[in-house]
Amino acid sequence: MTEKAKLLETIAGKNRGLLATEMDRVRVLSAIEQLEDHNSNPAPLKTPELLDGNWRLLYTTSKGILGLDRFPVLQLGQIYQCIRVEEAKLYNIAEIVGVPFLEGIVSVAATFEPTSEKRVQVKFERSIVGLQRVLGYKSPNKLIKDIETGKKFFPLDFSIESREQQGWLDITYLDEDLRIGRGNEGSVFVLAKEKKS
Fold first, then answer.
1. Is the pTM of the predicted complex or chain greater than 0.85?
2. Residue 86 sits in which domain range?
3. How many domains does the chain contain in total?
4. Is the separation of the CB atoms in 175 and 142 below 8 Å?
């Protein structure tokens, strides 16, 4: 079994990390480190064609993301990080599900700047929170298109002071359909690339 297959098997059934025990987290981190040791792409920012696209979160240790699942009755749906290399922009989009007609969305738009062959400095600029029906949310691509055309979303659409909300992300593994990142707060992220539709 390859290191990639071992990692995917280790994170299976962990619901992006929500169901991971302490022992699970140790096993996942070990599998991540083994895959990172076999990274065939040590300079991921030099391969924009691999990096660009919509990435679905498979696993994370980020308390900020996993904390979105704490609302009563509501559950965390799909989580995406959509990277637009040419524009140096990224969009984090979390779908909230559970109660019919009350499905929500939590999204953050950011810009990024490469600081090395694998690290980007991220500046968060805008946050959008609301009900999917009210926002007209159908897919990550449609939301991004609406954001880029300047559409304002109500009730919660606000600018973020970038000097307060910034961080960095190291891309420690990248291939055609899997990406691993490590953030400045010690979080790890494992994401699968969505097929273009």
1. yes
2. 3-192
3. 1
4. no
